[in-house]
Specification:
Blueprint (H helix, E strand, L loop, with lengths): L12 E2 L8 E2 L5 E4 L22 E4 H9 L6 H11 L3 E3 L2 H17 L3 E5 L18 H6 L17 H12 L4 E4 L5 H4 L7 E3 L6 E3 L6 E3 L8 H6 L22 E5 L6 E4 L10 H13 L2 E5 L11 H4 L4 E4 L12 E3 L4 H9 L4 E4 L6 E2 L2 E2 L4 E4 L1
Parallel strand pairs: 6-7, 6-13, 7-8, 13-14, 14-15
Antiparallel strand pairs: 1-2, 3-4, 3-5, 9-10, 9-12, 11-12, 16-19, 17-18
Helix pairs in contact: 3-10, 5-10
Cofactor: Zn(2+)
Organism: Symbiodinium natans
GO molecular function: histone deacetylase activity, NAD-dependent; metal ion binding; NAD+ binding
């Protein structure tokens, strides 16, 4: 008897390998890419259904087959496949996720001093862009595509991934969190700064270089008008507090003053060319040196020096990221999707998952005063 075909689910797509052209279901292992064809049509002998700039999907087996047999592909297909491979995002099948989730939960249960390292991929579900992948900032720049930056940071809310990390910290399953994200979502999810290092700063934190006092704000702290003044896009005299940073070429002064000493305040967001704050980096390395396991979420672990925490720790490294080719090879387990949290957290939390009502809590002196937590079965 012929196998019954599964009906296409709402989020299903079609495989772009022409001799397959089959339905890719949500629970299937797949690869998603995007490539700019710059208006050039595909040749008649092409073995791939190319989409100009639009997302394309392949069964994982079809994608692997194309890579293995790329020497036999038409020249145009080969060139485009190489470009597409640089944008590839990988997704495990539902069956693989369940198995890996159980194994990852077992590894972390056996640890007593686990740390968590997070990157931009954890916050894409919150509405923030990442750098790699099919719609990553660096991918689009390489294709000559420029997208307007429209993020309103005050409207961002923690994702389920952030909430799961916060719950694991609360339960003592994760001792410390080291994040390369400057969105402030880990702190908003309830993780105190005694258990969190925002190594690339936070858009909601500013500090006084004179006396060292730090302020956690409810509003976005950096002075974004500086870039427009530097580029001549804003008329009128430039505010006196805006100054060019020798390290990154941008501005870090916020225009506000310290409540204690009255000196100008400085934002904490790190740009390329800036040095990392020692008071934030030191506890991250100290906890990493004592760690017996590391959970890395949404990062290829390629940006230093903070990425060194995954090497300093002495236990298994569990990686959850959509890209292949992570900077570190000593990996105990890899997940190819962030959504594995739903499956894995059930194993860690005995089937009870946290959730947050999507409103920004009242914040004062860096402490969360109100936080609504429920149970998601």
């Amino acid at each position: 008897m012929a196998a019954r075909k599964r009906p296409a689910s709402e989020g299903a797509s079609t495989c772009s390998k022409k001799d397959c052209n089959g339905i890719i279901h949500d629970e299937d292992a797949r690869v998603e890419v995007a490539v700019s064809l710059r208006g050039e049509p595909a040749h008649a002998d092409s073995r791939i259904t190319w989409q100009d700039g639009a997302p394309m999907a392949f069964h994982r087996s079809c994608w692997d087959s194309l890579l293995q047999k790329r020497a036999s592909l038409p020249r145009d297909d080969l060139q485009r496949l190489q470009l597409a491979a640089a944008t590839a995002e990988y997704f495990d099948s539902a069956q693989e996720l369940r198995q890996k989730a159980q194994e990852a939960a077992s590894l972390l249960r056996q640890s007593s001093r686990a740390i968590c390292f997070t990157g931009a991929g954890l916050s894409t579900a919150a509405g923030l862009g990442d750098y790699r992948g099919k719609r990553g900032k660096w991918t689009l720049e390489g294709q000559g595509v420029s997208e307007a930056y429209t993020t309103v940071y005050e409207e961002l809310r923690p994702t389920f991934g952030h909430e799961a990390v916060a719950k694991l910290v609360e339960m003592g399953k994760i001792r410390y969190v080291i994040s390369q994200n400057a969105d402030g979502l880990h702190h908003l999810s309830g993780i105190p700064y005694t258990k969190l290092s925002d190594v690339h700063g936070s858009a909601f934190t500013e500090y006084c270089p004179s006396c060292g006092k730090r302020y956690v704000r409810q509003e976005y702290a950096p002075e974004d008008r500086a870039e427009d003044f530097f580029a001549g896009r804003l008329p009128g005299p430039m505010p006196s507090h805006i100054k060019v940073c020798r390290g990154c070429g941008s501005n870090h002064w916020t225009g506000r003053s310290c409540e204690d000493c009255g000196q100008p305040l400085h934002d904490t967001v790190i740009s390329f060319g800036d040095g990392l704050e020692e008071c934030v980096l030191r506890p991250a390395f100290e906890h990493a040196a004592e760690a017996d396991a590391c959970l890395s979420l949404g990062s290829t672990m390629s940006i230093g020096p903070s990425n060194q925490v995954v090497l300093i720790q002495k236990g298994p490294l569990i990686v959850c990221v959509r890209q292949e080719g992570c900077a570190h090879t000593e990996i105990a387990m890899s997940f190819y999707t962030i959504s594995w949290w739903t499956c894995w957290a059930k194993n860690m939390l005995n089937g009870r998952l946290p959730w947050i009502r999507r409103r920004r809590p009242t914040m004062r002196s860096g402490l969360l005063l109100v936080k609504s937590v429920g149970t998601f079965l």
